[in-house]
């Protein structure tokens, strides 16, 4: 790349940064001029001048500029360069002056005319390109509207017509899709005008009652993994449409959504279904990806659509999939990535308003807390508005029931509170949770939506890495052999009590969360090794039978701990990725759900189904207030790292208390109760006949759940 001889960038409202190459008059200029579109020339005072190896860097003073005009900078020797708009859009006053809060951004269709509105406050002009890159291409100039918007109303029927925006800034044209578009051509080629009236009406589905996040049983799933196994006779493999199929295995076992519903799951959490960049939508068979690389936040991913060439297909298929999920009595949680984008420089945001949407450090360094090359800046008025607008679209147009935020710690807490407030206004039992890791993004720690700041977002949940690491043992590849409480390590029992009570009571150390509704208990998700693969390493010295028991015990503890249980699809049948840690772009062979394996491990599946059913039957296993946990839950240490957890059940008609006895050791644990208790769950699952016990023999690597009968008064 050839370094330009003269560059001029407007970084603050009162200054311009100029560099002048030493190859031209030794880089020296004792004066600079600004020329505006009206050919008025203004002399700029030099504030500072610093010599570098190749250039002189100047900072010059400038008057307040109209950001929607083109300007030129001249040096003392008649050399000129267009003035570029730099970080001036990050100036404290910028949002005050330009943030546009209207509700008409995007293309609004009616049969007689379509209105286009785009926010481009640093563009000197914007054109609408109709049917770009086709013989029918037409370019129409847009008009300047209020607060940095450009708008245009076109008479005629533009349903299904492709469009892009051409933006002119400092003499250069760039093209972008419309971030507010409802659909697009395959692979983000152009935006498409959509008539919402043309979408088929959705049936009204009455969902089962759902009150508190702790009533949820979450199940994480990838759209494509769901239906790619040739053993399962899906017609529409890898597509949204597979969720509408009632499929049975050759042995007659129900697969697909029927199977998931039969487990007692309440919410299916789908890995990204917004438009992402890493899979060719016209040839999805050649690449697999989880999809954590957003391209268009408000448009469904096209590779899962039956016909990616039809801009309506991805919308209709996604809506139908969510209806199908609802019709099975399940709710749908969408995994969203409002922390970074596929590629910042080529993103529509950067093309529309450079420097505005992404986060920068004090000296213009690009923030990269996501470790994906960029961070979106949720604190900017129009970024925050965009998040809210797109989320409103997913809630109202697609009827999602919850959201899982990827790297939520990169988003500021005020934005998350506004999102949470809006969603619960729209859907009262909407659930939001996310990864509250403290990432090194350029945002003060006190403003990040991290676990450390859980009290600032009391309605939002967090993945509990504390539970994960303590119960299972380390997740990280370098220490995968390390065991946890349920995989047989001697650990701090106080910490075990803390995580079994949702890490919110403050009785076993400082509380991490304010309520159990914030605690997402999990040991396996799409990231890192599956539980079965981890146990195969960490418990290699044990027998296969013992490892199988570990899988059951660890998973049962996820479900029986206070908080919100989260399972990774297939965890209940020992899902394996053959030891791989990060399969974000591995083949279907590694990632797809192996439905045959489910049939091979039906005993574990049936056990997990029993555990979930018992949790859902007994409200005391899913308390939603910290006060109840503080008041009604007590522990007793038992030999062999065993533990008895007692939950008083004052509201239960027949039980005085529930008693959970955990034996993580490879030996039988003997424990005598004062009276006979009813066995609700033992190693084999829920007993089919009424079973009472007093002097317990808890089998190795297992747990027992009992109910203490209330004495007749
Ligand atoms: Ca895509």
Question: What can be said about this structure in brief?
Answer:
With 713 residues, this protein is α+β, with helices and mostly antiparallel strands. The chain is built from 14 helices and 35 strands.
Structure description:
The protein has 713 residues and is an alpha+beta fold. It has 14 helices and 35 strands. The strands form seven sheets. Strands 20-21-24-25-26-27-28-29 form an eight-stranded parallel β-barrel, surrounded by four helices. Strands 12, 13, 16, 17, 18 and 19 form a six-stranded antiparallel β-sheet that branches. A hairpin with a 6-residue loop joins strand 31 (643-648) and strand 32 (655-663). The longest helix is centred in the last third of the chain and has 17 residues, at 544-560. The radius of gyration is 29 Å and the shape is elongated. 50% of the residues are buried. The chain binds calcium ion (CA).
């Amino acid at each position: 790349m050839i370094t330009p001889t003269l560059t001029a960038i407007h970084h603050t409202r009162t200054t311009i940064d100029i560099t002048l190459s030493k190859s031209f008059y030794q880089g020296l200029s004792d004066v600079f001029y600004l020329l505006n579109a009206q050919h008025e020339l203004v002399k700029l005072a030099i504030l500072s001048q610093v010599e570098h190896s190749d250039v002189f860097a100047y900072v010059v003073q400038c008057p307040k500029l109209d950001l929607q005009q083109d300007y030129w900078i001249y040096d003392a020797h008649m050399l000129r360069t267009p003035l570029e708009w730099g970080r001036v859009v990050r100036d404290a006053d910028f949002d005050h002056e330009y943030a546009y809060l209207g509700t008409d951004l995007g293309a609004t269709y009616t049969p007689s005319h379509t209105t286009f509105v785009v926010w481009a406050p640093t563009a000197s002009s914007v054109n609408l390109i109709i049917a770009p890159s086709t013989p029918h291409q037409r370019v129409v100039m847009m008009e300047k509207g209020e607060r940095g918007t450009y708008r245009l109303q076109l008479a005629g029927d533009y349903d299904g017509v492709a469009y892009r925006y051409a933006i002119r800034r400092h003499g250069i044209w760039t093209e972008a899709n419309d971030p507010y578009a409802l659909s697009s051509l395959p692979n983000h080629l152009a935006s498409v005008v959509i008539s919402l009236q043309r979408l088929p009406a959705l049936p009204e589905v009455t969902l089962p009652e759902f009150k508190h996040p702790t009533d949820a049983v979450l199940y994480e799933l990838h759209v494509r993994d769901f239906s790619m196994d040739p053993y399962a006779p899906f017609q529409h493999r890898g597509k949204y449409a597979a969720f509408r199929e009632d499929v049975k295995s050759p042995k007659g076992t129900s697969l697909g959504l029927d199977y998931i519903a039969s487990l007692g799951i309440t919410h299916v959490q789908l890995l990204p279904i917004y438009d992402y960049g890493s899979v060719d939508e016209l040839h999805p068979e050649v690449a697999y990806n989880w999809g954590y690389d957003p391209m268009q936040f408000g448009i469904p991913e096209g590779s899962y659509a039956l016909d990616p060439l039809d801009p309506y297909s991805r919308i209709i298929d996604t809506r139908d999939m969510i209806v199908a999920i609802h019709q099975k009595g399940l709710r749908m949680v969408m995994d969203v990535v409002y922390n970074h984008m596929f590629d910042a420089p080529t993103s529509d945001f950067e093309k529309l308003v450079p420097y505005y949407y992404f986060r920068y450090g004090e000296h213009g360094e690009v923030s990269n807390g996501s470790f994906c090359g960029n961070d979106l800046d949720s604190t900017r008025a129009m970024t925050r508005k965009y998040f809210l607008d797109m989320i409103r679209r997913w809630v109202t147009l697609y009827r999602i029931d919850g959201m899982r935020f990827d790297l939520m710690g990169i988003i500021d807490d005020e934005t998350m509170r506004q999102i949470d407030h809006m969603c619960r206004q729209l859907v009262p039992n909407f659930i939001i949770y996310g990864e509250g890791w403290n990432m090194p993004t350029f945002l003060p720690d006190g403003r990040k939506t991290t676990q450390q700041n859980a009290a600032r977002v009391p309605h939002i949940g967090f993945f509990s890495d504390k539970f994960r690491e303590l119960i299972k043992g380390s997740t990280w590849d370098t220490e995968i052999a390390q065991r946890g409480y349920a995989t047989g390590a001697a650990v701090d029992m106080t910490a075990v009590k803390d995580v079994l009570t949702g890490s919110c009571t403050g009785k076993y150390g400082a509380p991490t969360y304010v309520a159990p509704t914030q605690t997402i208990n999990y040991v396996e998700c799409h990231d890192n090794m599956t539980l079965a693969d981890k146990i195969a390493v960490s418990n290699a010295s044990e027998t296969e039978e013992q490892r199988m028991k570990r899988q059951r015990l660890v998973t049962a503890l996820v479900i029986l701990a206070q908080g919100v249980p989260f399972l990774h699809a297939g965890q209940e049948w020992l899902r394996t990725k053959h030891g791989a840690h990060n399969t974000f772009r591995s083949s279907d062979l590694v990632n797809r759900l192996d439905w045959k394996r489910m049939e091979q491990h039906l005993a574990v599946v049936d056990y997990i189904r029993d555990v979930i059913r018992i949790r859902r039957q007994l409200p005391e296993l899913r308390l939603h207030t910290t006060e109840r946990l503080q008041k009604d839950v007590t522990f007793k240490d038992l030999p062999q790292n065993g533990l008895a957890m007692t939950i008083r059940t004052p509201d239960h008609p027949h039980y005085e208390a529930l008693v959970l006895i955990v034996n993580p050791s490879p030996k039988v644990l003997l424990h005598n109760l004062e009276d006979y208790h009813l066995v609700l769950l033992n190693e084999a699952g829920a007993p089919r006949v009424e079973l009472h016990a007093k002097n317990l023999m808890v089998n190795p690597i297992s747990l027992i759940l009992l109910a203490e009968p209330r004495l007749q008064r």
